[in-house]
Amino acid sequence: MRSEDSEQFRVAIEDLCTAYNRPCTDSVIRVFYESLKPYHILDIKRMAMRHRASSKRFPAPKDLAPERATSAPSKPKEPEPVMSKWAIAANKILLSLAYQDRRRGFKPISKYPPMPAGGYGLPLVLPKPLDDKLAKILAVKADYVRMAEEAERDGEPMDGMEFSDMLREGFGRMLGTIA
Fold it and tell me: Same domain, yes or no, for 92 and 170?
């Protein structure tokens, strides 16, 4: 509500007080004004007329607040994944082939380094056997993902089954499960 609307607001509240046989004091007007100042004066006057026509009791300030949209609030957007759908698929396929495939069992890709004393996780510098084999596999995975993302950007998305077959064959050869 703008400051020049204060006289119209005062008249609307005085009309309500008269209609409901209530004393119209400055404190009543101030309470209504503080509660309703974010709204437009025309909306407040419309709600006052509607309340007068439909209710037998004196309104509270919230009764004169314009109605909000009756539709349900929109569902909050789920955050975008950090990785593309192609990278997620490649990670799942690599996990499946490298660790869960019956031909490989649960053998690691390479020998993991011992845990650092008092710390958790991998050391900052990977030992040579793990670094070489894992680096090659991850480089191939990155190439496959990049190809799929570029094809999608160019408007010709890669078929999901084709992508999956390509990954399975490439990872299988690198892991030694496919000759």
Answer: yes
